[in-house]
Amino acid sequence: MASQKSDESFTNSSSEINEVADPANNNDHCRNDSECSQVDDVIADSKNYYNNAKTYWSNVSPTVDGMLGGFGSISFIDIRGSEQFLKQLYKQKPAPGRKRALDCGAGIGRISKNLLLPWFDQVDLVEQDGQFCQTARTELADFSSKLGTVFNAGLQDFSPEEGRYDIIWAQWVLGHLTDEDTDSLGEEW
């Protein structure tokens, strides 16, 4: 069996080969050009995926019905279910703080307005569609002292400041991310 020669080498015990990893080459995991091409295709597909999503959402009405795909009538029960979840969460010891929350994929601020702003001292929003961000600012004007920053960014490109939020809320949005980006959020946040 081959042994490890340095911090930069690794052992492939099945074929008894020592190889030195080149940190400058991000495609070390590729065994051949075809496999590397597949990685490049996934990256290109991801960009196309988000561009298509951006186009889709830019054509959606900035209303509760638009945010819920034509099912605006479920908004009340949806909020009540989320409220029950928060009540259970805050029965836990130790419970999270209630100073600052982040509403991910905030749309027009439906969740912030009806759930998070009543619970938290300050709520920031992150939303990729500029029209939705503007509508959220308008819809949440009555909460101006509690409304923090409205970030106009996609979640795949957003990194919250470490330790800033007591709660990071992602409702009806994770399904709009690629699996890779969802995994990254879980690791980074």
TrEMBL record:
It catalyses: N-terminal L-seryl-L-prolyl-L-lysyl-[protein] + 3 S-adenosyl-L-methionine = N-terminal N,N,N-trimethyl-L-seryl-L-prolyl-L-lysyl-[protein] + 3 S-adenosyl-L-homocysteine + 3 H(+); N-terminal L-alanyl-L-prolyl-L-lysyl-[protein] + 3 S-adenosyl-L-methionine = N-terminal N,N,N-trimethyl-L-alanyl-L-prolyl-L-lysyl-[protein] + 3 S-adenosyl-L-homocysteine + 3 H(+); N-terminal L-prolyl-L-prolyl-L-lysyl-[protein] + 2 S-adenosyl-L-methionine = N-terminal N,N-dimethyl-L-prolyl-L-prolyl-L-lysyl-[protein] + 2 S-adenosyl-L-homocysteine + 2 H(+). It comes from the Eukaryota. It is an enzyme of class 2 (transferase). Its EC number is 2.1.1.244. The keyword Chaperone does not apply. Keywords: Methyltransferase, S-adenosyl-L-methionine, Transferase. One of its GO terms (biological process) is methylation. GO terms for cellular component: cytoplasm. Residues 1-33 are annotated as: Disordered. Pfam families: Methyltransf_PK (PF05891). GO terms for molecular function: N-terminal protein N-methyltransferase activity. PANTHER family: AD-003 - RELATED (PTHR12753), ALPHA N-TERMINAL PROTEIN METHYLTRANSFERASE 1 (PTHR12753:SF0). Belongs to the methyltransferase superfamily. NTM1 family. This is Alpha N-terminal protein methyltransferase 1.
